[in-house]
Amino acid sequence: xxxxxxxxxxxxxxxxxVAFDATATxxxxxxxxxxxxxxxxxxxxxPRHHGEGDVATHTEMALCALVGDGSWWxxxxxxxxxxxxxTLLHDIAKPACSRLVEGEWRHLGHSHLGEKMARAMxxxxxxxxxxxxxxxxxxxxxxxxxxxxxxxxxxWHVLLMAEGVDPRRVGMLARADGAGRICEDQERLSTTxxxxxDYVKDVGCGQGxxxxxxxxxxxxxxxxxxxxxxxxxxxxxxxxxxxxxTMASGLPGTGKTTxxxxxxxxxxxxxxxxxxxxxKAGEAQGAVVLAARERARELLRGGESFIWDATMLTRDxxxxxxxxxxAYGARVHIVSFETDAKTLxxxxxxxxxxxxxxxxxxxxxxxxxxxxxxxEFIDG
Length: 380
Hints:
The protein is α/β, with parallel strands linked by helices. It has 19 helices and 7 strands.
């Protein structure tokens, strides 16, 4: 069940395609979402790919293209609102990623950074986790429909995408993104995105996430990575009674440590190791992580379950521990903790400096089922 504020409190949907004013929408986003429209206006783009000029102009054109898309109007209001918000925010990271490379403006990494920026923005506004994550995940993958046909690992990425957001919604965003620009290869973009919708159905994601035969099949498929050639239809034997590695993932002050106590298994708490070693949170953490991982190996060798109590905010951090657990035949559970922004900052007032906490929020990547056997969310 969704708890929190709706996107409709901050983004107004157009009542008709005829009366839509994209410039007014950006102004509204600046006022209600605190969107830095001026940085978008000042952010140049490659004339080959964006002859219309700056990012704000492209965003306005993409919004107009979306509103002119009949299939968007056929969606339910909630879905229309989420796709609209995603289109509005899909390039917000371009100013931060802007680099002049051999005389051409490039924005490498703007999809992944944009995901995290959108998540932080919507979290601070109190948007429901479910809606927030669908928007953030769509931004993460928004360039894939342009290039899926040239990738050997296209199926893996579409199945990964489907664990966080409906790929058809990403395709709709990409269609607006491609139409909302002046570029040399607009016809190719339109054709490729059009075929993407058929491809999504062909790989089994036309009605939601891929139907893996069991949790182990899903976990191992994504763990092995896009280059493994693993067939998603391959059924992995589900061995019961194995050790379970539980990752408590979340920002400081979300209740991870309180939850972990009294669960009946050992807790590997990085904060405790830091205190034992006399290492502060802002100092080098190599010795802390090394000690924690060595204890994890000892427990795994004995077939014992444990809880890993750390922030585990990024997919890379969680993937390292998941791979270690898998190497010893253990199952991986992730319990994702969060609370609202006001509560979080109050709880950390005497614990984590505000600027440090802000940087942590900026790195935050919420887990999906692609990372584990079992995923649970706890709001506190």
